[in-house]
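Re: the pair you flagged

First of the two:
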Amino acid sequence: MVMGLRRWCAAVVAALLAGLLTPGAAQAEVQHPRQEWLRQSTAGLFLHWGMFTAPKHLNCAEWERDVTGGGWTPGYWIDEARKLGASYVVLATFHSRLGYARPWPSKIPGSCATERDLLGELVRAGKAKGVKVVLYMTDDPQWHSEQGVQMLDSAAYSAYRGEQVDLTTREGFGKYSYDLFFEVMKNYDDLAGFWIDNDNEYWERNKLYEQVRQLRPTWLLSNNNEDTPIMDTVSNEQKTGMFPSYDYPAATFTPMPRLSEACYKLPTTGDWWYDGGNHAVDTRLNTGRYITNAGSSIKSLMAETPMVNGRMPAQQETYNNFMASWVPPIRESIQGVEGAGYMYGGMQPGFWNDGAHGVITINPASGKQYVHVVTRPRADFVRLRDNGYRVTSVRDLRTGARMRFSQSAGFLTIQGITAWDEYDTVFAVETAGQQGFYTGVKASATSSSGGFPASNLTDGSYETYWDAGAAQPVSISLDLGRRRAAAFLAINQRESSPTHARVSFGRPEDSSRIKDYQLTASVDGRSWWHVRSGALPSARGTQFIDIGSQEARFLKLTVLNTWGGPQAPVYFKQLKIDEIRVGHSYPRGVPGALEAEDASRSGSAHGEFCAACSGTRQVVGLGERGAVTFRDVSVGTAGTYSLRLDLTAAESSVVSVSVNGAAPVSVAVPRDRADVPDPTSVAVPLNAGRNTVKVSGTGELGLDRISVGGLPPSNYTPKTTLTVEPHGVQWVAPGQQSVKITARLRLDADDQIDNVSLAPVLPAGWTLTGAPATRPSMRLAGLLEGTWTATSPADVGSVSIPVVASFQLLGSDREVSGSVPVRTRPADRVFVREAEDSANQFGSTGLTSCGPCSGAEKVRNIGGSADASVTFPGVTVPETRSYKLFIQFTVNGPRSYFVSVNGGAPVEVKLDGVGNNTPHVAEIPVPLNAGANTIRFGNDGAGAPDLDQIALA
């Protein structure tokens, strides 16, 4: 039997390679019929279950005995998957951290294999109930003896192969696992595919994936955290740190129509596999992930942790039972749909009014859209951009109730909402289609990358795009063909980057989306007038620039910069745009309540046409002793509320609000356009029932409308980016020392903050040179920067210098902070620097947390290419001689650095360790010159250890 399998594998491989090694080898399509079942899916269930599931087994037969004796049955897993609305199960048993067990009776020796065909039983059980099964395969041998027992049998596999193979090496393990792919393909016709946990060089060299395509053309291939072209899907693993925390798509990097998964653990704590604990499941977090993923056409691959007998821990079963009743009433809005606001059309997802956040899904066949309000607003209405869709009806999908709505100035407002679902209130929206956009617009640009011309911007296809070729600033010119009215731009940027700066597995990431822009217009392409300047939020989905009423043939959008910083070189200045459309008008509908033109006016206040305003009217003259008075601003409960005023301002102005005759409260309004409203909010006290609100101002100010909502919760702080340098622990010589500190605050949220101050807060005995940096107010993309010098007393010791940005949000205090840790270096060291220090050069490597490491950080992803290196400039020593270089590192298994000094020949430093989270220290001699030197750590050909710190003696 073994020889038969070997002969079959050898014959198949030889025949396939003969064709694959010639030109024209098949490549996977981005879209293919084999993917259709997954495209129609919402979710999958990820099961990490193997020999090391608690209680751990080190003997395969004993583990299998306990699996069977405990009552394991495949039907239970299939039923749990269906409760979650999952269409497929991924089984991860052949896993590097679970003992490399194979849940099938394999004829290929090398690691544990069961006699019972657990895989086959699961595949048959899934087929009976319409649930696909995908098999997880690891590429990684490095955990072969994690439990102190060797789990890979090189001798047995070598005897089987008739050659010496070391399974603990990537090459040897690649050869072994390569054979396993063919065994599985031969024996399991109804398997749905392979889920690959990263590539192995042996597989790629021997064209494994191409052979899977030919042998099993209906099977899917998925890769974890890598967008490998031949794969059908890319899976994005365990993304965290977003705001809101459930907004998983904000951390992904795969544009439609590429299939993608969000792969995450349902339990809040614990391992990917059962570790003996009944860990909590955060229903709010996980339902939010489930819905927002559907809103971006991302499949939710939810990981649960079955015990040895296959049962889920109690809290996971409880969550599954909840989902079994929560999903069906909204099933039509999450299955067989696509994410809206992207290539499939639809209204704008993201942040809406009064703290609301959600996504849109769309049925491509019927055009019906679904508004998913995941975070409810602090008001009884939801207001979002309609993207040119004329709405005809709105219905609460759970209750069936018809909803009141209004539509004006490019916004849909769903009104009078009382039946909020705790996790996702869904409104089914019928429309009469999309209107108000020009066709035949021509685009050109001042820079384009080869193969990605500006003509792609207006070709109607989201599978072609324009690449700016790393140019900034860069201008896009849109030719309408003749002089026409233009009201707004709708821009779909390439969803190939996360929305905010983050680190994933040590890889720095950032947003490549437009930040600051200028828009000009022309009738002849020679003489241009200024239309608008501003900033776009770093957000997914269609973004809009309203421009009032322009009569022009040409519009020029100049992108001054993008959100991403140089710390993430893969995303820095990498602007890509799918489509830009020019809108000439907004869908007409009934305007909402509290319109300025419907309120009482006094003094010089008078109505005026305003195409971009709600109801196409605004009240101007407020800066000339005019006022608008609303006499029926009603709330149910007395308290302090957020009053939003949609204002136009041709110049920097001040708006004043008086409630029920009290003294007015004033707030600054920045200059923008006289015919495009922007929101300004102020906190006001309101009585239960009816209130009178009087709005006046100074400068050229116009009022479109007002609305009332609750104040932000006390735990809400607008998203900011605070960059403090130097980064990392600063090791200084004994005695009095000075540290130069720079800080930069950027407001990333579309909020207004006031009374902004930025400054270090010094420990006792320290002195500061430099005043706090301040601004009276900041809005989206606003910056505040400062530089100071902090001087220590007689000796530094060990201190941390906080750098605090304080500000007010609707009158309530908020702050964010960073810090500069400073320590006196050991007496026997002449130089110490952390690997993560901002003085270093990181290439394509990245920083990652490491609790046991010095400074709790280290540099990861060193090696494999020339730019994956860490360079320490300014390594200063007192004299020219040979020094001892102490390298503090972490590593799992044997790896090497190549260390070069001052550009000299690199010297290999071979290192070894276990666990990759325990710092070790190696020592080598290095020749250094008196003064500043440069030391580089890299490995152009293979992965190197992670680097924590260097020191010299």
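Second of the two:
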Amino acid sequence: MSIYNDYIQEIEDRKTQGLHPKPIDGAELTSEIISQIKSVNNFNREEAVNFFIFNTLPGTTAAAVVKAQFLKEIILGEAVVAEITPDFAFELLSHMKGGPSIKVLLDIALADNGDRAKKAAEVLKTQVFLYDADTDRLKEAYHNGNEIATQILESYANAEFFTKLPEVAEEIKVVTYIAGIGDISTDLLSPGNQAHSRSDRELHGKCMITPQAQAEIKALQAQHPDKSVMLVAEKGTMGVGSSRMSGVNNVALWTGKRSSPYIPFVNIAPIVGGTNGISPIFLTTVDVTGGIGIDLQNWVKKTDENGNVIRNENDEPVLEEVFSVATGTVLTINTRTKKLYNGDQELINISKALTPQKMEFIKAGGSYAIVFGKKIQTFAAKILNIEAPTVFAPAKEVYIEGQGLTAAEKIFNRNAVGLTQGKILHAGSDVRVEVNIVGSQDTTGLMTAQELEAMAATVISPIVDGAYQSGCHTASVWDKKAQANIPKLMKFMNEFGVITARDPKGEYHAMTDVIHKVLNDITIDEWAIIIGGDSHTRMSKGVAFGADSGTVALALATGEAAMPIPESVKVTFRGEMKPHMDFRDVVHATQLQMLQQFDGENVFQGRIIEVHIGTLLADQAFTFTDWTAEMKAKASICISQDDTLIESLEIAKSRIQIMIDKGMDNHNQVLQGLINKANKRIEEIKTGIKPALMPDTNAKYYAEVVIDLDIINEPMIADPDVNNVDVSKRYTHDTIRDLTFYGGDKKVDLSFVGSCMVHKDDLKIVSQMLKNIENQTGKVEFKAPLVVAAPTYNIIDELKAEGDWEYLQKYSGFEFSDALPKSTARTEYENIMYLERPGCNLCMGNQEKAAKGDTVMATSTRLFQGRVVEDRDGKKGESLLASTPVVVLSAILGRIPNIEEYKMAVDGINLTKFTPISTKQ
């Protein structure tokens, strides 16, 4: 009874927060609940029955195993529960989605041909989350002449699990809610500082936007009970930034509908819109939940009578409203005409939101059911030796005669599954591809584990070359939340077959390295496809896609992903970098020059950036590919030279070997396998059998951008522009300013060198600059705190070997300790240098933060409101993003330096340089 009493006490505690009982995932508590159900006169029996029916998580959770077995006992008559008849037990099994429930149903269905077997078969015909162990049983029974197995396979071959679902309504009524003006980041929908609660969906839902917004959404629902609330990013893009599934989960929790009456707090069918559309990563999560994402285009550039764009005093295009989506506006989505209406007035064509494939996702309640459904249909047809009937929308295939392939198109064609030999596809084609590398990060990992359990997956797909579970987002502070969540996550992932940053057995040293750096190292083939649970999964080898926790789970479970081949934008360079410029300045200038060349249109958004920076090693090139998330690109590809690629692969091999030496490899020897694959790839390049990946000379791009290095004369700073009178222009990453703009007198309260944007050379720059300053002034004195967090332990080890770490230690006032990690987040900073533990640190914003209202100068990636620094009364927090030397000098001076001070400080320092190469072949 003790575990049950503990649960009851937890329920009372949650009531004080306005929460319902937490969904049950443990076997011990579920067993105790069943014991109380069996005890007819038990005081808690009625309550226990409700917990069992309505509050036990499905899939492969330990609770689901126990629940499925008890339902089997009820069906077989071995247990009698008045509230749960055998027929109701079958219904409950039908909502458990796979794993133990499928095993029970197969046990019953394949046992005989009686009434129970037929009922079990009818339920099985609705299920799609079957794996090899399940299909092997069906296959064997079929070959042994089992009639029930034959009926189930025939149903699967005809995809009755899909065809018998209700059709999507022709008209969907919505009422709008403006969630914000300008871009809406997933930080607004699921704040990073609440990452610890993401796996507790109801609790985490309370952090969406603001309590006031939640109340306003509920008021709209009360006023319009027959309509769905559509969240809108007015004059912006919906869902920019991080790839967290929790963002769309929160939207669905507040505005969607329940996926099942027996699965608590898992909602589907959210509807969202944005003036500039939906961020590609966020749109994937909308598809996962069977929702609708609409590119509203309700504001456009205003033109004069001659068609010329009208500009304001800042030379920016003036926008005019085409139609209103103000909060409370009632609109109609017509799924037949693919149009959006206000009453009888047609507003816009929304066919891109309602493609045949997306209509299938909506009908099935999410994209996973379609992915698994197609696989089970193909399996059944093969076993029955028939051609599967055409049920699902045919994949779109685009081929243009005489047109070459971009680098992305080559990778997608190489990795495509089920493509007829010799067939070539161009951008716009729908493909299913094999995934080579998968990454899961720690603040979304528990959700990935939940998704794997919901998919009934128990082991990593053998197709995947390597997968890694990070510990970087919770590296800064080993607090009670981290201690409760992370060991459980690492154990699950380790048993699933993933290489884990922390050893569940405690035998190897915890590696809190930034996930993107590790994924960049374990990617050992530039032809690879990488899926990672973070928007900065942007490797400089291969093509990488940041993804939500569900898509990561799907890649781990199946080794596959499905998506259209994106269009590409080619980025090349001309001219020469100035001696005092750092490559980070080139990255920011790329965004600025692109916007200038295309009259403010972001041609990168939703596309793959093919960047020709092949003379840079993978570590340095990652600074560019990483920032493409801030450019709103879907992904990026770095075109590398043979010699450079070989050197990058050798570095990757050495770092993978370090992981092996630490004891991180598993029984499948995944890490050793990666080294073997790297050796093979190096040999292919050296012998000329297969040179480094290059696009065809006659490839076609959406756009081509040429960046002029000659005009980059000053450090370039990405500014959140927090006081812009046009609210939609704040926190966009599109405002790039040179150093002189700030006049050398803008106060800086804290500087941060860290995040995935930096590499070993950045830490060497810090060391060299401090030595320079000491030589020039006789001392190193900070007028603002300087927080330094190396992205990986490997970098620290290399800095120690090269003599730089001792200088950083010399000038620091704090150095992290693995033996005594911090248990609480720092809230106050002194004017010293802090050497923090490898990991995300301030960039993530879930543990460490700057003081409210601070002006922060950082090398990190995000400048969203509240991410690194929150506002305070009378002063907005702002996080400006710049190169390492600018950040360090800002801490020394306590302000942004002027150009002369900057040039003096970097004199003689080896900044990260880049020399363009010809793209002609």
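The longest strand covers residues 171-181.

-B.
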